[in-house]
Structure formats: C-alpha cells, structure tokens
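Hello Y.,

Per our agreement to keep a running log of every chain we model this quarter, I'm adding this entry. I've kept the format consistent with earlier entries: sequence first, then predicted structure.
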Amino acid sequence: MIAIALSTSLACALLTGCADIYIVSETVELREDMRVPLGGGCSQVLHGGLFASGGNAVSSGSAGRDNDLKVDEGERGDSYVVVVSSEDEVLEHRSYDRSFLLSHKVDTFQVTTARGRRFEFSYRGSRECDFSPPPASPADAGATRPD
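Predicted structure for the entry above:
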C-alpha cells in the first residue's frame, strides 16, 4: 500500500507538480473595427481528477437577441467540451483534454451567428485563474473537433 501511495505521489509530482490547473476562457464580439470584450471565466482542474466539479457539469449562457448566440461548456467524460450555437445550429464544437491544458497552448476560434454577429473565443490551460493575456501560440493547437 505504501508503494502505491509513493508511486501515485511520484507520478503526480512528475506530471503536474501536484498543482491545480485551470481552463481559462475569453469571449470577444467583433464589430467592424472594434473588439468588444464580453467576459471570460475559468474552471479548476485538480491533479487528482480531471475537473473539480465532477460528473458531467455543464454551464450555459447566451448573448441575447433571441438565442442568437448560445454557449454550453463543461466536463464531459475526460474532456472539457465547448459547444457554440446560434438558433439551434451548432457553429463550433471543441474538446480540451488534460494534455491540452497542461501544454498551456491557446485555442482561438471565431463564429458568425445566424443574425450576422461575429464572436471570437479563446481557451487555454493555466496554473492560475488569471485573465491576463495568454502567451502567444498557434491557434487550434491541442483542441479537437468531432468528425
């Protein structure tokens, strides 16, 4: 039993440094020559499990105008999933696993809603729940789309 505890602790230290990881997001509306920040958030990922919330936690939000933009996100299985839709049509579906979060890469994508509004979303892993600008990295690195 001690050997198992030591191996788990060693694996934790080697893989993550036993520190919490967060997925940090930001949403911006793109209007002509303006970038209008709409906000962001973060969800904690624990070194002992994938997500702090456990289960299949999902949060949802919309940006007015009769469901013109809807964002559902949260844990699904061993990934953090983001589904962006407009008037019941899926515009983008992203899935972020633990290796993506540990890589600190940034996934940035844009969508245009059914009513012509444009939005940009950014997701990245971080050691802190910090909304400072992420370090530069290639878009879409480490994120997956379903076939």
